[in-house]
Structure formats: C-alpha cells, structure tokens
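# step 3/5: fold
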Amino acid sequence: QVQLVESGGGLVQAGGSLTLSCAASGLTLDSSTLAWFRQAPGKGREGISCIGRSDGNTYNADSVKGRFTVSKDNAKNTVFLQMSSLKPEDTAVYYCAADPTGFLYCSADMGVHDFDSWGQGTQVTVSS
C-alpha cells in the first residue's frame, strides 16, 4: 500500500523560501513518477511540478518555473519541492501524488486523474 506524507509547510513572508518533503512508502522512487499539486481556496487542484523515473524528466508549470525545483532522494524515498521567491498567490494546500508504475511522463498534460496515490497535504501561506 502506497503512503505519502508531506511536511515542511508553514507561514512565510513574500520573497521567502520553503522546502516541502514527501516521504513515500510502498513504492520505490526510481521506478515511479512523483508530482506536486496545489489547491488554493475556491480553486481546482493544479499540477505544478513533477519528476519521473529518470531525473532528466522533470516538469514545472509556468506559474512556478524559475522559482520552484523538484528533486528526489531515492535512498531516502523522499521527494522535495524547493520553493523560493514565494508570492501571496502561492498560498495553497500542497499535495504529493504518485504513479507507482512510473509510466506517466511528466508534462503539462498531467492531471489529478493520472495519480492513484495522494498525501494528506500541507498548508503553505505566503503573507504580503
């Protein structure tokens, strides 16, 4: 059974940085596709970053490109989202999602329906 546990959220001022972690169990990262989604109040869940089986396959949405970096530590079975130059519009609940088959290719076409496993989410609040 796949379990994903996010941590690292919190309150930060605009321009600041945070690093989110997603500890995974029940799968191995080097054969899985992992993604980060976020959901702001009153909005749908948005896919923002993704890392595939190969570290060369990564995706970042235009809204976070140049500010957010996704990475993973296969030995620790943990995925990270390094967030910098945070803006108030980055305020949302951030979710980790997994495709344990690793067949999903990270791209702008990925959606919530592509992932079977989800974490409980961690709140990120950016104050102006």
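# step 4/5: annotate
The CA atoms of residues 23 and 76 lie 8 Å apart.
# step 5/5: archive (pending)
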